[in-house]
Amino acid sequence: MSRTIEIQSAEQFSGLLKSSRIVVADFYANWCGPCHQIAPFFAQLALSLGKPNVATFVKVNVEAEGVKSIASEYAVTHLPTFIIFRDGSVAEKIKGADPQTLQAVIGKLSSDIESAGEGRSGGGGGSSSSGGSGGIAWRGADLPRGYTDISDNIDIRGLELLNADTDFSVRTLFSKNKPAALDKGKSTGEEKDWVESDIDEQLLLFTPFNSAVKLHTLQITSLPPTDTEDDDVPMRPKTIKLFTNRPHNLGFDEADDIDPTQTIEIGEDDWNANGTANISLRFVRFQNITSLVIFVVDGDGDSEKVRLDRVRLIGESGEKREMGKLEKIGDEPGE
After folding, report:
1. For the chain, which terminal residue's Cβ has fewer other Cβ atoms within 10 angstroms, N or C?
2. Could you confirm whether domain 148-317 is CATH 3.40.1650.10?
3. Is 32 a catalytic residue?
4. E strands of 222-333, at which residues?
């Protein structure tokens, strides 16, 4: 049981992100009516779920000296805003005084909070989540400041992957679990824990979204085996083309002929220890996105197959109002 902590400095906040596995931050201002309305509910969540060094609930006054920079760092432009951090990285961002939404998001973490008594999960290699049943997906690289993993916004039923080997499921790419290849000796069972291409190295992945999103970063994990001399070992992707707002998947000839929203070349040095390439997108071109087509053009090697283990989409979900003066959610500006 724990009470909320009023943040007094950026250094204090940074220290809590390092010492507490989960941090739930309430960004507010004294003049914000909705902030005051939801404050008792937030305090009750802190009392019922807070645990020292495991789950810490904090309040950040965006107009207080010494902490203004925190709101700017995490792109807080509306009040109240609640940001949930997991192992120091942004996991969720909630705008507005909506108790139901806040409780639902924190509820996903409740099992982690109850069971976590061993401190923070191991760092290194850039992994920012542990995966499993806690509701937060494993990621092979840290999140950029101010953005969240919006892979849950994908309409899973509309996923389509062309030229995939029939032994693999496209949904595996968005699994919340850590790739089995990173757990040495772990059996993946009958269903493969990754995706491979079929007749050549090209893949076309169509990902529709449940609502319009803004994409900032693409994280691709590829873990082909290295302890084999088999000539048919799959490759990591090298050239990727991205297409936005398509009503359906493209054909391979069509993808070759039309101009992409962005072309990406992944070099050997772009892959981290978790086998993940953290790819920054041209953010201005990825606003108000309703679908994304990922075209793997070729692989890095001489094989005829390409392997993908996980795909994570990082950005902002839903519509975002214009940047400017901080406003109270639900109130007209200037009131």
Report:
1. C
2. no
3. yes
4. 237-244, 262-265, 276-280, 289-299, 307-308, 310-317, 327-328
